[in-house]
Design brief:
Layout (H helix, E strand, L loop, with lengths): L2 E2 L2 E4 L4 E6 L14 E7 L9 E3 L1 E6 L4 E6 L1 H6 L3 E12 L5 E14 L5
Parallel strand pairs: 1-9, 2-9
Antiparallel strand pairs: 3-7, 4-5, 4-8, 6-7, 8-9
Length: 116
Amino acid sequence: MAIYEEITIDQGSDVAWVLNLVKTDGSKKDLTSHAVAAKLKKNYNSDSADTTSFTSAITDDSDGIVTLSLTNTQTNALKAGRYVYDVELSFIDSDGNTIVERILEGRAQVTPSVTK
């Protein structure tokens, strides 16, 4: 089950988040052979044209560290208001099946910029 988190994005700013993923026992999650993806939409039913993809990277697979970011160009293109987002990890199991786990989801508030 994904963790729910509300985030704030300042329109026109570069933003980044570092996620430190741990297992239920508190040990670091090994992300070897995993991929990460994250997207932001105005609402769950928005089409792909209204979707903003985060730059998503596993920055330390053995320590379970994921970095998500948006450039100032991306955040400047967002209209002020509420959005939804999620972050998913995926890997291919020993049978060749792609396993996807949503690790984080929530609402994002984009605050308007005065200086453009």
